[in-house]
């Protein structure tokens, strides 16, 4: 029973991580769409309210960039790409390839 509970807890934890990753990627796609629309809006803008909408667009861009950064940090925290164990694993991989190629 204890092993079954641990497996179930591990599955639920992994399921939650996948869900958070999926939500982050959806948020990122929405961010790119918003950036494209706001940049286009900045390009075509004219009229008496030009200054207001210019600053409004800039504020929205900056705010959403900060929010997407915080969301990404929350989802990927602790996942540094080049950790020490990654370096060790790559060194072993290259040594193994070199050893195999040397005897051929």
Automatic annotation (TrEMBL):
<feature type="transmembrane region" description="Helical">
    <location>
        <begin position="21"/>
        <end position="40"/>
    </location>
</feature>
<keyword id="KW-0472">Membrane</keyword>
<keyword id="KW-0812">Transmembrane</keyword>
<keyword id="KW-1133">Transmembrane helix</keyword>
<protein>
    <submittedName>
        <fullName>2TM domain-containing protein</fullName>
    </submittedName>
</protein>
<dbReference type="Pfam" id="PF13239">
    <property type="entry name" value="2TM"/>
</dbReference>
<dbReference type="InterPro" id="IPR025698">
    <property type="entry name" value="2TM_dom"/>
</dbReference>
<feature type="domain" description="2TM">
    <location>
        <begin position="13"/>
        <end position="96"/>
    </location>
</feature>
<feature type="transmembrane region" description="Helical">
    <location>
        <begin position="52"/>
        <end position="76"/>
    </location>
</feature>
């Amino acid at each position: 029973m204890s092993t079954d509970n641990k497996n179930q807890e591990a599955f639920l934890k992994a399921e939650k991580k996948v869900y958070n990753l999926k939500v982050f990627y959806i948020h990122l796609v929405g961010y790119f769409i918003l950036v494209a629309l706001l940049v286009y809006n900045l390009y075509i803008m004219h009229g008496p309210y030009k200054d207001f909408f210019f600053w409004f667009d800039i504020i929205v861009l900056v705010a959403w960039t900060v929010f997407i950064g915080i969301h990404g940090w929350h989802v990927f925290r602790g996942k540094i790409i080049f950790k020490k164990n990654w370096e060790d694993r790559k060194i072993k991989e290259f040594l193994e390839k070199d050893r195999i190629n040397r005897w051929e």
